[in-house]
Amino acid sequence: MKPFDQDLYDKDDSAKHIVIEYLGRHDILARVNPDPYGIDLLADKDGEPYEIEVEVKHNWSGAKFPFSSLHYSDRKTKFLNPKANVKFITLNHEWTHAAIVDGEVLLNCKRVEKKTKYTDQESFIEVPVSKVRWVSIAVV
Question: Which segments within 4-137 are labelled E, that is strand?
Fold first, then answer.
């Protein structure tokens, strides 16, 4: 499993605020989770709670996602909460486009093992691009 990297975390931490702004434009009130070990954002729309995990894929640049599937580390399943509407929002390198995946979708996707630049073998959830909602989050 990939060890925690404070430098990488610090580099991408502000992406949460880009997502908060995007969600606000869609009448979803979001805030950074005060629990530093919990899911990234807590949100609410019309009394319905949402929990949102945010990440950045630096190997995705521009509007078009260049792969046939989107991978989430299997360790992210710890954030799946049956009492909340859980979303995983992945931003491209420039933070202008995003992939949105429902937590329920993750539960129904296959797991794969792969080598990464940080690990020799790590378990990932493989989400086909057909199960992803693609959005532009750039402010125009």
Answer: 29-32, 41-45, 48-56, 69-73, 85-91, 97-102, 111-114, 122-128, 133-136
**Cα dist from 2 to 14, 94, 116, 123, whole Å:** 21, 23, 9, 10
Provide DSSP, 39-52: -SEEEEETTEEEEE
Provide the residue-wise pLDDT of the chain in tens; the chain has 140 residues: 555 555 655 577 889 999 999 999 999 999 999 998 899 999 999 999 999 999 999 999 999 999 999 999 998 999 987 777 999 999 999 999 999 999 999 989 999 998 877 777 889 999 999 999 999 998 76
Bridge partner residues of 51 (DSSP)? 42, 86
Taking the C-alpha atoms of residue 62 and residue 97, their distance in angstroms, rounded to an integer, is 7
Burial of 17 from C-beta contacts in 10 A (0-12 / 13-18 / 19+): middle
Structure tokens at 55: 């990440």
121: which 2 tokens?
Answer: 């073998």
Q: Is residue 62 within 8 Å of residue 95, measured between CB atoms?
A: no
